[in-house]
Amino acid sequence: MRSSQHVDESLKAESQTEVQPDQFVGGADEPYFAPRVVLGTMIGVFSCLLLAALLMLMFWLPFPAGGGLAGVGLAGADGGTGDGSGRRVGDGKSNEAADAGHDEVTVFDQESAIPGTAQKNASGEASGDQNTLTASTNKATSLETATTATTATTATTAKAADTERPQKQKYTIAPIESLQSPEQGEQGKAQAQAPGMFEGRGTAERAKLAKSEGGNAASEKAVEEGLRWLAKHQEKSGAWSLNAFSQVGDCDGQCGNQGLNSDVGGTGFGLLPFLGAGYTHRSGKYKNTVQKGLDWLIADQTKEGTFQNCLAGTLYAHGVASIALCEAYAMTKDPKLKAPAQRAIDYIVMAQHQGGGWRYGPGQAGDTSVTGWQVIALRSAQQGGLKIPRSVFTKVSVYLDSVQTDKAGSGYRYMPGARITDAMIAEGLLCRIYTSSKLRRGELRAGVKYLQEHLPSIGGELYYYYYATQVLHHYGGEPWDEWNHVMRDLLIEAQATEGHASGSWAPQGGHDSSGGRVYATSLALLTLEVYYRHKRAFD
Questions:
Q1: pTM higher than 0.90 for the full model?
Q2: Left (φ > 0), alpha (ψ -120 to 50) or beta: where does 356 sit?
Q3: Helix-helix angle 391-403:422-435, to 10 degrees
Q4: Which residue among 178, 398, 426, 451 sits deepest, i.e. has the most Cβ atoms within 10 Å of its Cβ?
C-alpha cells in the first residue's frame, strides 16, 4: 500500500505532464487558426465601414421643411420655407404659424454647371468620363485591391464631407405680407403686392419718399418728362434701340447720340425707369408701353434663358434685361413672367465664373462692371421669390475680395490687378451691400468717404452717378445729404428742354457715349428715382 506522500508526488508528476504548451488545442500550429483570424479581421473592418457609411448617410440626409425637396428653397430651422412648400424663397410664408416674422431664409438649389469646370457630386467624386474610367479600373483589380480602395474611398468621402460642404448663407428678408402697401390710386393692386425692396414705388409712397428722402417737385417733373421721351422712342415691336431710336415715330433723326447695337440692352434700359417709378404692365398710364417691352423681351428669349439680340451688349445686356423681367414679376406676381424671369436668372447662374464674377461671355473671368448688373438682377429675383443657388452670392463675395484694394474697403478694381476707377469703387460697394448677409453700415465708411471726395460735376460719368447714388442713399446721413444736393440739381440742369430731345439726357463723360442717349436718359432717370426705387438697406 502506497503512502500518502508517495501518492501526492505521483499526482503532482501527472499534473505537470498532462498538458504541455506545444500540445495546446487550437494553437498556432493548428491548421484552421490563420483563416479564422483573417476572417474575423475582415468582418471587423467591414462592420466599421458599414457603420461609418450609415452615420454619414444620416448626416447628409435632408430634413424637409414645408414639404420642400432637398436643394430647393429649404429653410429648415432657420425660418420660413418660401411659400410653405419649400419651393420659393423669401416670401415669409411658413408651414407653421409660429414661423411668422422676419425670416432668415437660407437659399438652397442645385449648382448650375459652369462651362469649363468639373462638376462634383455630394461625395466629392468627379462625374462623366472620370467615373467611367474609375469603374473600369476597379473591375480589373483583385479583391485585396478593391478592399483597400473601398477603405481609401470612405476616408476620402469623410474628408470631403468635412471640407467641401458649404456653410449656410443667410439673408434677412421681411415677409411680403408686412410690406404690402395699401391700394392707392391708379396703380392699386399691382403696387399692393410689391416686395420690400420695391415697396416705395406705390403712388402714395413714391410722393412721400420723394419729399422725405431728398427729392423735390423739380426732380419728379424731370422724371415724368424723361419717361415721356422714352415712350415716344419705343419701336412698334416693343423694343428700344440704342442706335436706331432716332428713326422711331416723328423723331426723324432729330435726337442725336446713337449708341452701340443691342436691342436687348436698349429694351432693358427702356423698361427700368418705368418700373422704378411704379408703372407696370398692369396699371398706370404707361401700362401698354411696359407690356409691349416685356412681350418683346420674352419673345426674344432663347430656351437657354439668354436673348437673341444682346449683340454688342453681351452679358451687360442680359443682366439689364433680367433686372427688368425680375422687377416686373416681383411687383405684379404675373404668372406669365415667372418662367422667363427664372430662365434669365438660371442663365446668369450658369454663366458665373468659378472665381465668382461675370464678364462678356459665360465662364469668362469676371470684371466688376459686368458683375454689378448680374448682382442686381439676382437681388431683384430674390425679392420676387425666384430660385437662386446659395453658392452664387458666396462666390460673388470671393470675387469682391479679389478686387478690393485694402482691408478698409475704400476701393475696388475693374479686375484683379487692374485699374481703380470711381465707377468701379461705387459698383463694388453696392455689390457688397447686396451680397453680404451681415454687413454693417460702418464697414462702408472708408468707401463712402472716397465717394464724398469725388462729388458729381459737369461732364462727369452717369454710370458713376448711378452706382454711387445708390450706395450713399443706402448709407444715409450727412454724406447722403451732401451728395444728393449736388447730384439732383446737376441732373435736373443737364436735362434737355428744347426740341424733340426734350426730356432726355445726352451722354456725359466716361463710357456714356457707348450707350448713347437712351442709355444716358435711363441712367439719369434711375438716379433721380433713387428716393423710392429701392428700400434702404440701413434704417
A1: no
A2: left
A3: 150
A4: 426
